[in-house]
Predict the structure.
Amino acid sequence: MRIGNLSSEMEITLPETLPPWGKTAAYAAVAMLVSEDGQYLLQLRDGTPGIWYPDMLCFFGGRLDADEDAETALRRELMEELEFSPRALTYFSFICYGTARFEPGIGCRYIYEAEVTKSDITGMTQHEGAGMKLLSPGDVLSHKHPISPVDMQMLYVHLMCRGLVPPPVG
């Protein structure tokens, strides 16, 4: 298939079979927790067999329950995972991605941004995962830390919004 725009064309390859319309989608809400000095607080996933992204860093959050909106779900998840209630959640992005290699369906995530202070971090009690880590923008870009692919993409977009990496050209 060729997709064209005003200045160029690019060729993309689509899978032989696309997921049928109405395929099961799993919805989650996650928090991009940003410290006062611009670092990102991420959860280190544990190594439990069968979980998504074991032993990788990712945003805190989780699946939406039935009839639950994204912000309510995220606030619930942050209390369950960290005993933390952010003062404010700011909507940042929404992304969907195919999950066929993990389980049938499509994963969709609401990404919110929330500021955390040193006092907030000290007061957190983590109940899920193997730990947490503060990463600077340079740490994120170094690729020295295993960050889940979906969260890495959103961190990169956030760094672009902060003017810390150039936007794509073309």
Observations:
- Confidence is low (pLDDT under 50) at residues 1-10.
- The first strand starts at residue 2 and ends at 4.
